[in-house]
Specification:
The protein has 162 residues and is mostly helical. It is 77% helix and 5% strand. It starts with a helix and ends in an 11-residue tail after the last helix.
Length: 162
C-alpha cells in the first residue's frame, strides 16, 4: 500500500474515531445550562458533522482497500481471520450509521447507537493488531529468505563471450 494512501487512511480513521468518541461523550454526559434549562453542548453538532464527513472518506478508502488490498491478500491466504474481522466491523459501522441517520424510532436508535459505538470502539485495536501481525509476518518471511549475494558462489564467474 503506498505511503501517501496509508497516511491519508490513518489520518481520516483517527479523525473519525476521535470525533465518534467525542460525540458519544458530548451526547450522553455533557450539557450546558441554557435559557430554559440544561441543553446539548454547542460543540456536539459540529463534532457530529466532522464525524460524518470523515466517515464518507472512510467509506471511499474502505472501497479502495476492498478492491486493491484484500484480493491480493486473499489469494495469498494471508491474515484472513483478522482481515475479515476488520471488514465485518467496518461493514457494521456503515450499516448502523445508515440506520442512525434514517430511523426515527428512539428505542431502536439507542440500541443501534451502542452497536455502532462498540464496533467503532474496537476498530483501532483490531486494526493495530492487523498491522502489527502483518509487520511481524513480513519480517519473519524476509529473514527466512537468503540474500541473493549469499547464495552466489565466489567461484561462479559469468561466461565470457568469444
Amino acid at each position: 500500500m503506498p505511503n501517501t494512501y496509508r497516511y491519508f487512511l490513518f489520518t481520516v480513521f483517527a479523525i473519525s474515531w476521535v470525533t465518534g468518541i467525542a460525540f458519544f461523550i458530548f451526547s450522553n454526559w455533557i450539557t450546558v445550562e441554557g435559557d430554559f434549562g440544561p441543553e446539548k453542548h454547542p460543540l456536539q453538532y459540529p463534532i457530529l458533522q466532522l464525524h460524518g464527513a470523515s466517515a464518507f472518506f472512510m467509506m471511499m478508502l474502505f472501497g479502495a482497500l476492498l478492491a486493491a488490498h484484500m484480493p491480493v491478500s486473499w489469494r495469498l491466504n494471508r491474515m484472513r481471520n483478522i482481515g475479515l474481522t476488520l471488514v465485518t466491523l467496518v461493514s457494521v459501522q456503515v450499516i448502523t450509521a445508515y440506520f442512525l441517520y434514517y430511523l426515527s424510532n428512539e428505542s431502536i436508535r439507542e440500541v443501534i447507537s451502542y452497536i455502532h459505538l462498540a464496533a467503532g470502539g474496537c476498530l483501532p485495536f483490531v486494526l493495530f493488531t492487523h498491522i502489527a501481525v502483518g509487520i511481524r509476518k513480513r519480517r519473519t518471511n524476509q529473514s527466512k529468505l537468503k540474500p541473493i549475494s549469499a547464495s552466489l558462489k565466489t567461484t561462479d564467474k559469468p561466461a565470457k563471450a568469444a
